[in-house]
Specification:
Blueprint: H1 2-12, H2 16-23, H3 27-35, H4 42-51, H5 57-62, E1 82-83, E2 86-87, H6 96-99, H7 114-120, E3 124-127, E4 133-136
Antiparallel strand pairs: 1-2, 3-4
């Protein structure tokens, strides 16, 4: 599991100190796990999975499957994306600029009716400035 945590930190470009702060553990706990001195506790694993909800638990714990629950998921944590208190889109396939979704959320002409949303949308994800998000699945 140590190697998978290291791989995740590398993929997300998070330092071990920032990772410890993000999941709410002491920095020394992360250091001991990454050095191989200690194995992660159940509580430690839970904290990782609660903070990084799209991280695949089966991959983290057992090494099976993909790192992320969704293949379309980009980087979950990127401090470089913050500009004047707002998030920039990630430059991957989920970027609004690449898939043509309007970025100006104040533009009322960009709104889609709830009925149209139910026919075309598979999932709606709202990202908050505190780096949390909520997923909504339209009922068919």
């Amino acid at each position: 599991m140590r190697d998978r945590i290291l791989h995740f930190l590398t993929r997300e470009n998070i330092s071990s100190a920032k990772f410890a702060d993000e999941i709410g553990v002491q920095r020394s706990s992360v250091s001991h796990i990454l050095s191989g001195r200690n194995n992660p506790s159940f509580d430690f694993i839970q904290k990782i999975l609660r903070r990084f909800e799209l991280l695949n638990a089966e991959w983290l714990i057992l090494g099976r499957g993909e790192m992320y629950k969704s293949r379309q998921q980009g980087i979950m944590f990127d401090p470089e994306r913050r500009i004047e208190g707002k998030e920039k889109p990630v430059n991957d396939m989920t970027s609004t600029a690449k898939i043509g979704i309007p970025v100006d959320f104040n533009d009322k002409s960009a709104l889609v009716s709830e009925e149209k949303l139910k026919e075309t949308a598979e999932k709606v994800v709202i990202f908050y400035t505190d780096k949390t998000f909520k997923e909504y699945y339209p009922q068919k």
